[in-house]
Structure formats: structure tokens, C-alpha cells
Amino acid sequence: MEKIYYITNQNNQQSFANAIPLELVATHFLKDSKLEQKLQICDCLIFTSKNAILALENANKNALKIPSYVLSSASAKALQKLGITPFFIGKSGYGEGFCDELQKNLIHKNPLFIRAKEVASKIKESLKNYGISLQESILYETCIIKLDNFQKSKLKPAKNSVIFFSAPSYCKAFLQNFEWDFSYQCVCIGTTTLEFAKANLGDMAKIYLSPQPNIKDSIAFAKTLIN
Description:
Oligomer: single chain
Strand content: 15-25%
């Protein structure tokens, strides 16, 4: 039977109607011994994921009051739940477009990028080309959950299903637990995730870019592939 599956995080799992979650990643918070020093120097924050917001909340909740530039509405909602209004919300919802927006908005600013241990973003390089010095604070890492053989056999997606990836790390987590079946279809958020999927799922894989950079609309798009 055709179904829709989406990879989700153990720390902040979301539920969506008519879609099956696969809990394959977890967020581990990290310490930055120079965080307080960086916060004193910066005058704005950059967030490209809601996990970065949760990580800074864990490290120094008061720092969230510093004006912030967030990638998308998903990150904005994470701040708003904490009673904080973002200073700037990216309009494109994608990494490349966000870099362009930051270049225009951060001249004469001292931004601090709250990020994961591994990121696909090229924000630092992009801003450097515009003479903007970017500090970084690594406050979390995305870790893959390894399933045992029983869990794999129980949770493996059915043939002809649609698998949804919202980040390259989520695609990687799937492939470290399951073999890709060429009856599957794949939906990706963002061109970075799309490129990773194309490079790792094989030439025969059916891969689509979601028309909207959010999970709810992406799952709605995935439903059209099986109707």
C-alpha cells in the first residue's frame, strides 16, 4: 500500500495527518566555552533551524532577546513560542536565498551564527565576500539513531511509498537504516537536500523538489504523487 513517510527528530517530533513518522535523528546540545564572549560582541543572531533556537535557549535563554534573523517561518514560530518576535524572517525559505537577503541586511552588523556541528549552509563564505565578519557558535549536533534489525523490519517503508526529507542529514539517517527501494518516490525541501538525495539515492531514483519550504505543504505535495 502506498504511504507517505517523513523523517523526524526524537527531540521535537511533529505529527501530520496521513503521514507516518520515522524517528531517525536526535539533537544533542553542545557547549561553547566562548559563547558569553561572542554574545557580548555580537549585535544580532542568525538562525537557520529551530534546533539552533532550542540549543541557544538551553545554553543562555536571555540571549534570545538579541535581534535575530531567521531562515523561515518554521524558525520564527519556534521563537514566537518563547514570546520573542524575530527581527527578520527570510522570504525565500531556502539557504541560498537567505544568504542573499543577509548580504543586504547585515552591512555594518556583527552577527553571530548559532549552528550545528555540521551544516550545509555557505552563510559564512557568502557574507565574507561582502566584507561581513561572521562569528559562529556550535551549540548542537544532529545524531543518527541506529535501528536494530527487528526495528528495521518493522518500520521499513512499504513499496511505492513517498519518502520526505527536510534536510540532508535526514536523508543520510534514512540510508543508514534502510536500503533505498526504487519503487519509492522522494520529496525534498530545499535545493541542498535535493542535491544530496540525487547524489546518494542513485540515478534511477524518482526525486522531487517540494514547491514550498515547509513540512506541512511538502507532505500535501507528496500526497499528490500517490493519488
